[in-house]
Amino acid sequence: MPVCECPAPLQPGDELHVIAPSGALRELSTFQAGVALWQAQGYDVKLSPGFDQQWGYLAGEDAHRRQQLLAALETPSCRGILCARGGFGGTRLLEDWQWPAAPPKWLIGFSDITSLLWSLSKEGVSGIHGPLLTTLSQEPDWSQQRLFDWVVGNPIAPIQGKGWGGGKVTGQLLPANLTVATHLLGTAHEPLLSGTILAIEDVTVGFFLHSPNFQGWFD
Fold it and tell me: What is the reported pTM?
């Protein structure tokens, strides 16, 4: 997998655009709390027109949600993109999709946003597999601070954890929601996994690991 470039560090006063590329917004109070946390860091948070639309379980029709992403990417004053929530539908934006030739911008989200983050990584741009606006306020203080430190270029401490096996490895970190990643197998948006450290999150990890194993992810 090619080395991904991080977007330029953010600074207080920078403009961040809110988009809803996946499911319709349902948790208004937690969404507002997430927006407030970014605003408290000094950022100018702008809500994309129609971000709160609902079309079945989606936040608007595919063309509408795709346009939100495209507009944020092509707006010169926008320095980062905050995803409202996960759910379903992000992969639908990638049909006939081409990333515009624009300076790299922070794209932040997890769960269903994996599809966009993985596709973006194939363009050589690093995103953040991190809190959505509807989940940010529920994160512990250290997790929130870790996110805010990373986007401004401050050093962050290594994540502490206990591995299942011995030894040490190095590689480019590639986080993913396993359900979404499984559905990207064999598509043009599946990154080259060789040499990466795959970090996965899901509620049924054990079940879904069978398919990637059969596909040779871990060979």
Answer: 0.91
